[in-house]
Design a protein that fits this description.
This protein is an alpha/beta fold. The chain contains ten helices and eleven strands. It catalyses: (6R)-5,10-methenyltetrahydrofolate + H2O = (6R)-10-formyltetrahydrofolate + H(+); (6R)-5,10-methylene-5,6,7,8-tetrahydrofolate + NADP(+) = (6R)-5,10-methenyltetrahydrofolate + NADPH.
Length: about 290
Amino acid sequence: MTAQIINGKAIADNLLDSIKERINQRLLANKRAPGLAVILLGEDPASAIYVRNKRLACEKVGIRSVAYNLPASTTEQELLTLITQLNQDNTIDGILVQSPLPPQIEEEHIIECISPSKDVDGFHPYNIGRLAVRQPTLRSCTPFGVIKMLEAIGINPMGLDALVVGVSNHVGRPMGLELLLAGCTVTSCHRHTKDLAKMVAQADIVVAAAGKPGLIKGEWIKPGAIVIDIGINRLEDGRICGDVDFTVAKERAGWITPVPGGVGPMTVATLMENTLLSLELSEQGGAI
């Protein structure tokens, strides 16, 4: 068996085309386009690339992107003041602060300062909580992107046994909640899990989100399983790889995402959709 490769870029491009059409329809109806504030601190090369990709996606779909490129020496209070101003700006529908942040800034303080109605990353505790109680609005981009990816390839997760490896607040935990919402029986694994290989071997869906290259061995994969690799790791030779041993895993899985070109593009596309949704919700009187 050789797995079918899930082309995240193609699926994301289709989603971006749909978002662009929705925004064009708004403009024809004399409604404004969504506005996204993108805040970058310092000159980290990887962060700059991520921000550039997000700004390019904004241009593609017609979202107005407002750039705030701040020095790495920016204080936490200065950043909080800017976010508070953007929370009150009626032309800004989404606020994105690119991580990682400089050491003098506490990330959780920043996340909680962003208005839940403009939290297009889906990181705010309020939005995670809405997902937990089955009333989602703005959902964490990467996990929701995975759900959209499964829908696009015609997979109904209901009733399947799903395993999420990694329990970060931004990816692993909301991923488990998304799969639970989709009707899966969900297991979360972490550094204290005793027998990861056994857990992987039993799963119909494996989502790797630990950030450790090659953590999931290909021979562990259940034949025919769906393997979603969220990990993005840069090796010493400069190559990018995921958390799954792709070469072996693709000979056992039914479906598998590559790294790069799998989940990454879906994260950006879902961010665009969240920005549009934030505007739509505000026009409806807001559900947040």
